[in-house]
Design goal:
alpha/beta, Aspartate Aminotransferase, domain 1, Aspartate Aminotransferase, domain 2, 2 domains, 7-stranded mixed β-sheet, 4-stranded antiparallel β-sheet, 15% strand, binds pyridoxal-5'-phosphate
């Protein structure tokens, strides 16, 4: 028997979670033990509607896009472009041409660092990032700085895992060309105050790139309200397939930027020695794109809109409140990051004397899937003086009862490893 949720006041009321779980085939699989999936920050599960949309493409209109003068190619093109429009509406972009399809967040950020960066960053310029960045929003800027002689600067964090923004005035100078930062930390779950930082960056003439890999899936994101210049996210963390990501950009910037990868689809005309490139987004979508995956992402966006991002956010908030309350009575447990009201999605922790990989291994025996490691955020690990943490992350299909299973698993790990040490 698993413990009952300990606080009746925290009974979930914002979503019909049982109905939602029914939409996800993997969660309905018979297995012993039953799968408790708490790793959505790495990759979320996929609802039937997304699998069906991709299946329909392969079964009924599989063809390359933009070039075929025949029915199924025209249908594939229309559905691919329809997906782009859905994504533009989802993040409130003015025009669908501001949505560039990439493979993932990492590729979107590399595209900007290489293309915009090479055209705009010079020796002595400064690139401002934070210590809580995923490596995907750090390494592309490190390479750019090494190539150009620019300098990387860092917004530090408080012990609680919030950005130290009293430092911002000192860090943002007329040399700052771009601020590249995460909206939500993949380790701590911290939600950063993007609008304030964007306004301050623009006041010194800097551009702003937002890594929205952990925010677009979990809370309403409005690029016009944020006023960011670029925004990057991945399909596979928002109920969509792998192999598809998005770069949003302000149109004037996308128009000015040189292409990143070149080849088929990116051009208006090609001569022997030079070429004229197409307008965005085609300029940045070299070669045959991930057609089924873009269509699948369009279906995922329809699904998330139907459930409602406000409701998803509220649901995760309740899960986090419950998890913080329940887990904090385990002796020797450290939770990293801020209080639930300042975060979303994830809870990172360590149990005294037990390696996070061992914790994850014990939890796996009872079907609980969590992540353990540095979460591609080594500078953040260094800040907390740990080499790794265990991270449980939540999404629209998780329940309070699953958090009880996580709690039970942590107690089991504690028993096993305390016994071994005696
Ligand atoms: N940025 C953040 C905040 C992430 O959490 C992740 C993935 O975990 C990434 C970037 C990289 O995403 P992808 O592997 O889909 O490119």
């Amino acid at each position: 028997m698993h413990a009952q949720p300990m606080n009746d006041a925290l009974t979930l009321h914002t979503l019909d979670v049982e109905a939602i779980r029914n939409d996800f085939p993997i969660l309905k699989q018979e297995s012993d033990p039953r799968l408790i999936y708490l790793d959505s920050a790495a990759t979320s599960q996929t609802p039937d509607c997304v699998v069906n949309a991709m299946d329909e493409y392969y079964r009924t209109y599989n063809a390359n896009i933009h070039r075929g003068i025949y029915r199924i190619s025209e249908e594939a093109t229309a559905r691919y472009e329809e997906a782009r429009k859905k994504i533009a509406r989802f993040i409130n972009a003015r025009r669908s041409s501001q949505i560039v399809f990439t493979r993932n967040t990492t590729e979107s950020i590399n595209l900007v660092a290489y293309s915009w960066g090479s055209a705009n960053i010079r020796e002595g310029d400064e690139i401002l990032v934070t210590v809580m960045e995923h490596h995907s929003n750090l390494l592309p800027w490190q390479l750019l700085a090494q190539r150009t002689g620019a300098k990387l600067r860092f917004i530090e964090i408080t012990e609680e895992g919030l950005l130290q923004l009293d430092d911002l005035d000192r860090l943002l100078t007329e040399r700052t060309r771009i601020v590249a930062m995460t909206h939500v930390s993949n380790v701590l779950g911290t939600i950063n105050p993007i609008q304030d930082i964007t306004a301050a960056a623009h006041a010194v003439g800097a551009k702003v790139l937002i890594d929205a890999a952990q925010s677009v899936p979990h809370l309403p994101v409005d690029v016009q309200q944020m006023d960011c210049d670029f925004l990057a996210f991945s399909g596979h963390k928002m109920c969509g397939p792998t192999g598809i990501g998005v770069l949003y950009g302000k149109l004037d910037l996308l128009e000015e930027m040189p292409p990143f990868l070149v080849g088929g689809s990116t051009i208006r005309s090609v001569q022997r020695e030079h070429s004229i490139y197409a307008d965005p987004p085609a300029k940045f979508e070299a070669g045959t794109p991930s057609i089924a995956e873009a269509i699948g992402l369009g279906a995922a966006v329809d699904y998330l809109r139907k459930v409602g991002l406000e409701a998803i956010y509220a649901h995760e908030h309740e899960l986090l409140e419950y998890a913080h309350q329940k887990l904090s009575d385990i002796e020797g447990l450290t939770i990293y990051g801020p209080k639930p009201r300042q975060k979303t999605g994830a809870i990172s922790l360590n149990l005294d004397g037990i390696h996070p990989h061992d914790l994850a291994g014990v939890l796996d025996v009872s079907g609980v899937a969590i992540r353990a490691g540095h979460h591609c955020a080594q500078p953040l690990m260094q800040q907390y003086d740990v080499i790794a943490t265990a991270r449980a992350s939540f999404y629209l299909y998780n329940t309070l009862e699953e958090i009880d299973r996580l709690y039970d698993g942590l107690l089991t790990a504690k028993k096993i490893f305390t016994r071994r040490r005696r």
